[in-house]
Design brief:
The chain contains nine helices and two strands; from the N terminus they run H-H-H-H-H-E-E-H-H-H-H. The protein is mainly alpha-helical. The chain is globular.
Length: 186
């Protein structure tokens, strides 16, 4: 876990210096480094992701949608062509990319976090109903469940004690990595 603070600072600097989402060179650098640091496994879909971000940026006002926190933006860039998979779903990568710009508007979509949310909901019923990983297949559905968790967690807490998407992502992912590893081991 020691490498993460330095990586986060580097990514913040990279994304603040390379602001363009329609310049292929700038987008390529951001996509490549983000893929490497977060181990998102874009592999052959990397060039396709760069093209997709640039196209959406030019045609669909990517930056305005980022600022607004338009969750549909994730769906516009998350599918890439792949010779191995046909179409590869890169929702996790797309959420990480958008979150670099708007941390308080785009939670990071992660399979470990989805598993953890199911376990927490099973124990606490924070959503008021049973949930499954399949109910979080779409990014907007995932965000809805994350919002319910955050709202429930923040109930009655002072503002400085409340969590946001970034702290949720960091702590639940870390916790999930540890707990799910122990569960899978036993």
């Amino acid at each position: 876990m020691k490498k993460y603070p330095l990586q986060e600072k580097f990514l913040d600097k990279l994304f603040s210096e390379y602001k363009s989402n329609n310049d292929e060179y700038e987008v390529f650098i951001k996509v490549k480094v983000l893929d490497f640091f977060y181990s998102t496994n874009l592999k052959e879909g990397l060039d396709e992701m760069v093209k997709k971000i640039c196209e959406v940026s030019k045609d669909d006002n990517f930056d305005k949608k980022l600022k607004k926190g338009d969750k549909k933006l994730i769906n516009k860039i998350c599918k890439v062509k792949s010779t191995l998979y046909g179409t590869k779903d890169c929702t996790s990568f797309a959420s990480k990319y958008c979150s670099r710009y708007e941390k308080d508007k785009f939670p990071i979509y992660d399979k470990l976090v989805k598993q953890m949310l199911c376990l927490i909901n099973e124990a606490t019923n924070f959503t008021g109903k049973k949930i499954s990983i399949n109910k979080m297949k779409e990014y907007e559905d995932y965000c809805s469940i994350v919002d319910k968790f955050i709202n429930k967690f923040n109930e009655g807490k002072k503002l400085k004690e409340q969590i946001d998407y970034k702290s949720f992502d960091r702590y639940i992912w870390t916790w999930a990595k540890e707990i799910l590893h122990k569960i899978n081991k036993s």
